[in-house]
Amino acid sequence: MLASLWKRAKPDLPPRLDTPRLYLRLPEAGDVAAWTAQIERNADFLRPWSPASTLRQVNRHGYAARRALWQYDSKQGCAHVFFIFRQEDNALLGGITLGNIIRAAAQMATLGYWLDEAVRGQGVMAEAVGRLSQYAFDDLGLHRLQAGCLPENRASQRVLEKNGFHAEGIARGLVKINGVWRDHLIFAKIAGDEAQG
Questions:
Q1: Longest dimension (CA), the chain
Q2: Which residue, among 122, 127, 94, 125, has the nearest Cα to 19 in the 3D structure?
Q3: How far apart are CA 108 and CA 78, in angstroms?
Q4: Taking residues 77-100, what's their average pLDDT?
Q5: What percent helix, strand, coil does the chain show, rounded to 5?
Q6: Helix (H, G, I), strand (E, B), or coil: what is residue 197?
Q7: Which of 9, 61, 74, 90 has the highest local Cβ count within 10 Å?
Q8: Residue 21, CB half-sphere, CA atoms under 13 Å: how many?
Q9: Strand order in the sheet with 92-102
Q10: What is the pLDDT of residue 10?
Q11: pLDDT for the residue numbered 66
Q12: pLDDT tens digit string along 133-191?
C-alpha cells in the first residue's frame, strides 16, 4: 500500500505546439544536421549569453547524447526541450526549454531559449515564449513560470515583457557563462497575468 503512494502516472509527452508562423516540437533524430549547422553558425552570437556546455560537442554524438537526456526528462515530466520551426519551410530557428518543472506545492518551471541570429528582431522568440507559456499554464496546469537573463540582454528582456513577465530582481551568480558566474535578472509570470502585446 505504501508503495502505491510513491507511484505517479507518467506524464504524456508534449504535442506539437503551433502558432501562425511557427511550430514547436520535441527534437527528433533527423534534426541532427540542422541543429549542428545552426549551432556552429551561431556560436559567436550565442557565446556571450550561453553556458559553455551548450557549445561543446556540436556533432552527431553530442546531439544523440543530448537528445537521450531530453527524452528522458520529457518522459519523467521534469523538463521539455522544444525546437522552433518556421511553418512555411520547416526551417529550424532556435530552441526553447520548459525546465526544472516542480510539482506539489510550487507548480512552477523555468524557461530558457536560444535563437538563430538571422531571425533576431522578427518576433520569433516572443511568439514561441507566448505559445509555450500558454501550454505550461493551460495544459500542464503550472502556476508560475520564471526566466533569467543577463542584465545587459535587453532583447531577451523585451521578449519576456511582451509576454507578461515581470522583473523581480537579481539572482547573484546564477549561471556560469564563459567561465564566470554571472548575475541574472529574474522575470516571472503567474497564471492569469496578461501579456503586454
A1: 56
A2: 127
A3: 11
A4: 96
A5: 35, 30, 35
A6: coil
A7: 74
A8: 11
A9: 17-18, 22-25, 80-86, 92-102, 108-115, 144-149, 180-190, 166-177
A10: 58
A11: 94
A12: 999 999 999 999 999 999 999 999 999 999 999 999 999 999 998 889 999 999 999 99
Distance of CA 58 to the CA centre of its chain: 18
Record: fold of 18-190:
Aminopeptidase (3.40.630)
| Amino acid identity at 56 | R
Residues in the chain: 197
pLDDT for position 63: 94
Percent of the chain with pLDDT over 70: 92
Backbone φ and ψ of 123, nearest 5°? 80, 10
Q: How many Å apart are CA 51 and CA 57, to the nearest integer?
A: 13
User: Residue 131, SS3?
Assistant: helix
Q: How far apart are CA 50 and CA 59, in angstroms?
A: 18
User: What is 35-50 written as a DSSP string?
Assistant: HHHHHHHTHHHHTTTS
Cell of 150: 543577463
In one-letter notation, the amino acid at residue 41 is R
